[in-house]
Design goal:
about 100 residues; alpha+beta; about 25% helix; binds FE2/S2 (inorganic) cluster
Length: about 100
């Protein structure tokens, strides 16, 4: 029987698709579009800024969007999804969005 547990992070969760699909399939994947590095940079920024108890960054498998460019990011608890180009400017945007909530 499932057992309820208390979430380790109280405020926000950011899911980043890091799925890496074999390029020979011809279908894009967030991992090929920088999703893995984007997630790693977000996690590092959360730690460096002392936000570890406020924002949790989690890598996921495919979230069924599979954009040709960028990676899928989802913000919880709002359930807001974005396709984001994996670059430092957008790392800042995603972090700010995660901290502030929906604007
Ligand atoms: S590979 Fe990221 S949504 Fe499918």
């Amino acid at each position: 029987m499932p057992r309820a547990v208390k979430p380790p992070y109280a405020l926000r969760q950011v899911l980043v698709c890091t799925n890496l699909r074999d390029p020979s399939t011809g279908k894009p994947s967030c991992g090929m579009n920088g999703g893995t590095t984007f997630r790693e940079h977000l996690k590092k920024a959360v730690k460096e800024r002392g936000l570890k108890g406020q924002v949790m960054v989690t890598g996921t498998s495919c979230m069924d969007y599979c954009p040709a460019q960028g990676c899928v990011v989802a913000f919880y608890p709002e359930n807001e999804w974005q396709i984001v180009d994996a670059n430092p400017e957008n790392e800042e945007r995603v972090l700010a969005r995660a901290i502030a909530g929906p604007g």
